[in-house]
Write a structure and sequence with these properties.
Layout (H helix, E strand, L loop, with lengths): L2 H5 L4 H10 L4 H13 L3 H11 L11 E5 L5 H11 L6 E3 L4 H9 L4 E5 L2 H12 L5 H15 L7 E5 H6 L1 H12 L11 H19 L14 H16 L4 H12 L6
Parallel strand pairs: 1-2, 1-3, 3-4
């Protein structure tokens, strides 16, 4: 993010528009609740996901599964691993559904699950999806995803934190190479050219998904004052849930999660 972007202050008019335009209708929220329930059941979820986003779902050739709650570094991690790969690696990713993790474990596919502190993840998710959900919906989905995942055989899973993939991706690369035998070559993510290459892959994926004018919403180089306003709106919602049981449960789950990256 540039200095100008970091220093940008949303106007009162912008904040009022953000609040007005980002109150999701009940129908959208209910549709999301249905999707959340289905997302824990492989027999229901996988065929639906395969129909909608076939390129992201496990196939017989899949070598690796990368999953996590949204806004936990999923896109950066995926593109960093593709950048580090010494040959094309068939990876499944980005369903953000516990059913996909279960499905992968049933097929003995090496799996890495990403996680992040719930307040930070919810804040970031609302900044890009506030028209479809509230903070309460986001905490409910966080709890559902990780509670379901944590019921699975943990000896077959590996976990990495948001900080691991965004600040120590070179350690994640080495871990996955050594633990799962993935064909990955370590690289220096602090090297401006290496970092730029990963960001370019992120933007290329956005174009593939959303059209020629799209840029990755996970690339901090594209943040603007409207995203800052959306995050402030998210902060207001999160503060209103200070003592809510779902927020507290999400925080308890996060406290129990442990990274495998050393």
């Amino acid at each position: 993010m540039s200095t100008m972007q970091m220093d940008a202050q949303p106007s009162a008019e912008l904040m009022e528009r953000i609040r007005r335009e980002n109150t999701p209708p009940l129908k959208r929220r209910m549709m999301r609740r249905v999707r959340s329930a289905v997302s824990t059941i492989p027999a229901l979820y996988i065929p639906l996901r395969r129909r909608r986003r076939p390129e992201s779902v496990i196939v017989p050739e899949t070598e690796f599964l990368l999953e996590g709650y949204p806004r936990c570094g999923n896109t950066w991690a995926l593109m960093a691993l593709r950048h580090a790969a010494t040959r094309p690696v068939e990876m499944a990713h980005h369903s953000h559904a516990a059913a996909h993790v279960i499905y992968g474990l049933q097929r003995s596919i090496p799996t890495l699950v990403l996680y992040r502190a719930p307040d930070a993840a919810v804040r970031s998710l609302l900044a890009m999806n506030a028209r479809n959900m509230t903070a309460l919906d986001a905490y409910r989905e966080y709890v559902l995803f990780y509670e379901t995942v944590l019921k699975q055989p943990l000896d077959k899973l590996a976990f990495a934190s948001f900080e691991d993939v965004t600040q120590r991706i070179e350690r994640v690369v080495i871990f996955l190479r050594d633990r799962f035998g993935l064909p990955l070559a370590p690289f220096d993510a602090e090297d401006p050219e290496e970092k730029a290459a990963v960001f370019a892959l992120m933007d290329a994926r956005a174009v593939e998904l959303r059209g020629s004018d799209a840029v990755s919403r996970s690339n901090p180089n594209h943040y603007d004052v409207e995203q800052i306003a959306l995050k402030r709106h998210a902060d207001e919602q999160i503060a209103a849930l200070a003592d809510h049981p779902l927020r507290k449960r999400a925080q308890e789950i996060f406290a129990d999660l442990t990274s495998d990256i050393t």
